[in-house]
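Tokens in:
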């Protein structure tokens, strides 16, 4: 069967020269959902002079992210993000990406994550003990603070505690500007002395000062502190043992791990509590499992995660409905055929976790929050690969996925054992799809005894 030419792929009516810019940036979730509903598993659109295809079928995603992954490189947003993330694991390509992953992978081996799990439990204990019944909190903010404390300790030890507030503010500024990095004239836009740009580059400067100071101190110290920074500084390339990461390379990796290591998990946890506040029976069942597995006082360890299948299912189901990374982009390096569709060189292929995770073909009653679906082994085996891909896939699957799963279960267990959260009467919940899927107006909650 002959493949379908790019121009035969259906798509929306567009404005000359600018294409679908107003829809893509005005409401991307609604735009992608409309493309899927109106045009099926493949829809094309343009943004200025760039060609895009949205693929909304797991089999097509499998080809893009796995079987034909080397015909693609990272998408447009991360091309622009290089000015902040450097040539780190998140944005590097080809052999350089392979080299970096080989160097960094030992930092995420099971033995190391077991050590990080202790930090996760201790930070969650501190947070839990600081809460008061009846108090009002913004759980979106609080989960960012908690996961930032975890990643700061696991990445840098306890040496950034005093700067945590400034670091959190700086990371937020960078995240909020990711959509601007999608614009075709971003390289020019970033040179303008606008207030937004001044804030953006000030944020990078603050983070650079912190990270380079820590790198310098550690190089003088020379000891293994048991954290990710020590691993990065000591990392050797198996194929070239004399080749170590430079200060700039360590900075780039640390910046990326700092950004990705707390933002995604924070959003996943915030959305999980949003869902639990609306599904009391699920919360009660989860707490019963946690109490049975851990008792009332013991701090959980990594081995305990396997004893919390329902808690893990709750976290999985939350990331199905509200995937922290809600869209993935890849640019074609060559003309390539995906399924029956011709993808011309330089076309950007989009796949959206948010769209596929809510597809009724793979998720019956997809809009419903049902953690039990994750305990049905037969249903799990029947689902196609990439019907669920919160951490991406292929050679570029998130290197910290094991870290994130462990952190999600441990933090949920520690929090749920003591507290529940009731949605505040003035809470307005709306999705804010930037580089991650954030709650636009936060998540205002009242703290209650569990």
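Residues out:
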């Amino acid at each position: 069967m002959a493949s379908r030419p790019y121009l035969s792929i259906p798509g929306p009516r567009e404005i000359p020269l600018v294409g679908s810019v107003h829809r893509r940036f005005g409401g991307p979730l609604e735009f992608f959902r409309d493309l899927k509903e109106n045009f099926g598993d493949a829809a094309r659109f343009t943004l200025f002079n760039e060609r895009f295809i949205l693929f909304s079928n797991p089999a097509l995603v499998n080809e893009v992210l796995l079987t034909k992954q080397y015909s693609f490189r990272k998408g447009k947003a991360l091309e622009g993000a290089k000015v902040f993330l450097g040539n780190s694991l998140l944005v590097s390509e080809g052999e350089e990406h392979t080299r970096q992953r080989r160097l960094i992978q030992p930092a995420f081996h099971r033995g190391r994550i077991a050590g990080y799990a202790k930090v996760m439990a201790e930070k969650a204990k501190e947070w839990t003990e600081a809460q008061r019944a009846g108090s009002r909190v913004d759980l979106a903010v609080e989960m960012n603070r908690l996961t930032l404390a975890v990643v700061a300790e696991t990445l840098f030890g306890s040496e950034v505690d005093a700067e945590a507030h400034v670091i959190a503010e700086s990371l937020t500024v960078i995240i909020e500007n990711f959509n601007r990095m999608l614009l075709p004239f971003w390289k020019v836009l970033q040179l303008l002395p606008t207030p937004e740009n001044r804030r953006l580059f000030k944020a990078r400067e603050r983070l650079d000062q912190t990270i380079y100071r820590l790198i310098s101190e550690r190089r003088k110290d020379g000891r293994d502190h048991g954290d990710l920074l020590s691993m990065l500084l000591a990392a050797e390339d198996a194929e070239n043992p004399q080749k170590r990461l430079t200060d700039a390379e360590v900075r780039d990796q640390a910046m990326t791990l700092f950004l990705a290591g707390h933002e995604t998990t924070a959003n996943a946890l915030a959305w999980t509590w949003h869902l639990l506040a609306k599904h009391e029976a699920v919360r009660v069942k989860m707490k019963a499992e946690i109490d049975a597995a851990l008792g009332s006082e013991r701090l959980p360890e990594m081995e305990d995660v396997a004893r919390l299948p329902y808690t893990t299912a709750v976290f999985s189901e939350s990331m199905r409905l509200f995937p922290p990374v809600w869209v993935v982009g890849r640019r074609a390096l060559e003309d390539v055929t995906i399924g029956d569709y011709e993808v011309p060189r330089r076309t950007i292929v989009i796949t959206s976790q948010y769209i596929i995770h809510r597809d009724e073909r793979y998720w019956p009653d997809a809009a419903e929050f049902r953690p039990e679906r994750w305990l049905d082994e037969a249903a799990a085996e029947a689902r196609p690969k990439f019907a669920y891909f919160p951490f991406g896939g292929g050679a570029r699957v998130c290197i910290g996925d094991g870290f994130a799963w462990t952190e999600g279960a441990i933090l949920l267990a520690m929090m749920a054992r003591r507290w529940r959260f009731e949605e505040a009467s003035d809470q307005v919940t709306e999705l804010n799809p930037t580089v991650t899927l954030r709650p636009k107006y936060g998540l205002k909650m009242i703290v209650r005894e569990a």
